[in-house]
Amino acid sequence: MGSVIITGASSGIGRACAELFAKSGHDLIVNARRIDRLESLARDLQQYKIKVFFKQVDMMNRKEVLEFVKSIPQAFHPIDVLINNAGLSRGLEPLDKGSIDDWQEMIDTNIKGVLYMTKAVLTIMRFQGHGHIINLGSIAGHESYPGGNVYCATKAAIKSLTKSLRMDLIRTNIRVTSVDPGMVETEFSEVRFRDKERAKKVYQNIRPLTAGDVAEVIHFCATRPPHVNIEDVIVTPTQQVNAMMNDRDYK
Fold first, then answer.
1. Catalytic annotation on 48?
2. pLDDT digits (tens, 9 = 90+) for 38-66
3. Quick check: is 63 in a domain?
């Protein structure tokens, strides 16, 4: 059984994936910007008797990403799965009122970071002759919503990237999947708004997905037989129909 790489593993869906794959006996290679959270995660995962390699990485920094991959100890090979989880949203303003700094952070993390990591890990997977790239997309990559402009564009890019990778890798044993959630109660809205109280209102009167719900879908995709590739999964709360329509009044 090979190792699993998870980016942005310090909280939310990334951490839930780490816990689930650890329970399944996979060794883990994880990164995040918050080293204290990574250290805490590594301690918590000791109960599963697996190996954990972790490193502080800013996914916007190409040098850090490439050095992270190069520094993976040989004991963690082969690498079975890469979960491109790290990502974020900033703001919810019309384009003309948006922050260019926020745009750059979303583009550099959600698109460039995924490209850097995927390119580096694919070199390893091609050499070993197998692997699985799982991108964390979003329902926002399938349909835009007011104020979502740049964030939606970054997730639409991940949708297109997933399809292109499938074409690039058709004659390999490397699978590619995009898991695209709707509303998930994590730190996502706190990061987007930089306001905990406003973030809480996003999930009022609705039962959103949990990080664990999404992790289970990712784990399911990763554990199909080698000849099965699940290309794209949209997963939403029962009370959410699409990016703009939900029923907060349903009991």
1. no
2. 999 999 999 999 999 999 999 999 999 99
3. yes
Q: What's the domain count of the chain?
A: 1
24 in a structural domain: yes
Residue at 143 is within a domain: yes
Q: How far apart are the first and last CA of the chain?
A: 44
**DSSP tag of 96:** G
Q: Residue 161 belongs to a domain with what CATH number?
A: 3.40.50.720
Note the pTM of the prediction, 2 decimals. Answer: 0.94
Domain extent, residue 176, equals 3-235
Is pLDDT above 60 for 251?
A: no
H helices present in 71-208, as ranges? 100-107, 114-128, 149-168, 188-193, 196-202
Q: Edge-to-edge strand order for the sheet containing 52-56?
A: 52-56, 28-32, 3-6, 79-84, 131-136, 174-181, 232-235
pLDDT tier at 189, thresholds 50, 70, 90 = low
pLDDT of residue 190: 65
Domain for residue 152, yes or no? yes
Of 145, 151, 203, 250, catalytic? 151
Alpha-carbon distance of 178 to 167, in angstroms, equals: 14
Main-chain phi, psi angles of 56, to 5 degrees: -75, 125
C-alpha 178/C-alpha 159 separation (Å) is 7
CA distance 225 to 248: 38
| DSSP 8-state code for residue 76 | G
